[in-house]
Write a structure and sequence with these properties.
The structure holds 2 protein chains of 2 kinds. Chain A is α+β, with helices and mostly antiparallel strands. Chain A is built from 5 helices and 3 strands. The termini of chain A are far apart. Chain B has one domain: 2-Layer Sandwich (Translation Initiation Factor IF3), CATH 3.30.110.70. Chain B has a 4-stranded mixed beta sheet. The chains are: A alpha+beta, B alpha+beta.
């Protein structure tokens, strides 16, 4: 009897706190993505850039570890019986990847573009799978390229 | 990791440039030194683990783990950079990261790339 009550409390806590946290996180993600809309992020390696305009290039990384709440875990374990799309985990992966990507972009504030961006996902520790704790790490990394402004480059060749 | 941190990793005597593409934009590669790699295996902290299992009830970001993993990745990168420095390289191109769980609750973070010298 007590077990059932505890499970119910945890589920309710997971549902309310979890969905509140998720909505808050999504709001912050969308706001920050809007702010960085102008900086292109590509998975391409080679882009023709005028050589004299390139200031520097460096590696940037960003990562985030996100876990699901109790309610979603319950939903996912129910899904394991019937099969099908586990919609409750989709938002988890989406949040982790977008957060990692945003952190990568935020770590290079003056960059003009990002080349060869990769996103890697991994679960932490083998035992997390056994205990059915779905926490995963998303890590984004790429090359930030800094370009000089156009008028600066026009001035540059004039100098001997 | 910000760019400043990256530079701190690279040390003051030589500034090593890292990219994950085959070239360094705006520079020409003059010499190849071959593969360099660095790895580290980290186990989870008991206190952090306890906090994480609590956080698992409500969901959300596990900040302790994010920090732990990025610190260990820094360390792996630093080891890779040291190896490249010993070879006399001044840049590492095509850097890749990989993560694997080797034992219970421990993760290996591995960074590898090609050490080169640029103009």
């Amino acid at each position: 009897m007590y077990d059932l009550v505890i499970i119910l409390i945890l589920t309710a806590l997971g549902y309310f706190a979890g969905s509140w946290a998720e909505q808050k996180h999504y709001r912050s993600i969308e706001k920050r993505e809007q702010a960085m809309l102008k900086v292109p992020v590509t998975t391409m390696k080679k882009i023709k850039l005028p050589r004299e305009r390139i200031e520097k290039a460096c590696l940037v990384t960003g990562s985030a570890v996100i876990s699901v709440d109790y309610f979603k875990r319950l939903l996912a374990s129910l899904r394991n019986i019937f099969g099908g799309t586990v919609a409750s985990y989709e938002s988890l992966l989406d949040r982790a990847r977008r957060e990692a990507l945003l952190r990568m972009r935020e770590s290079a504030p003056g960059a003009s573009l990002f080349l060869n961006v990769r996103i890697e996902t991994s679960t932490i520790g083998r035992y997390s799978a056994k205990r059915n704790i779905a926490s995963l790490e998303a890590m984004a990394y790429g090359t930030a390229v800094y370009l000089r402004k156009k008028n600066e480059t026009h001035a540059a060749p004039a100098q001997p | 990791m910000t760019e400043k941190q990256m530079q701190n990793l690279a040390g003051r005597r030589k500034k090593i440039v890292l990219t994950n593409i085959e070239t360094i934009p705006g520079r020409r590669i003059v010499e190849h030194f071959g593969l360099v790699s660095g790895s580290t295996i980290r186990a989870k902290h008991l206190g952090r683990d306890l906090m994480a299992s609590l956080k698992n009830l409500v969901g959300g970001e596990l900040k302790g783990y994010t920090q732990l993993l990025s610190e260990s990745r820094d360390q792996a990168t630093r080891r890779m950079i040291r190896q490249a420095e010993d070879m006399g390289a001044n840049a590492i191109v095509n850097v890749r990261f990989s993560t694997s769980s080797v034992a219970q609750g421990a993760a290996e973070l591995y960074a590898y790339g090609t050490a080169v010298r640029v103009e």
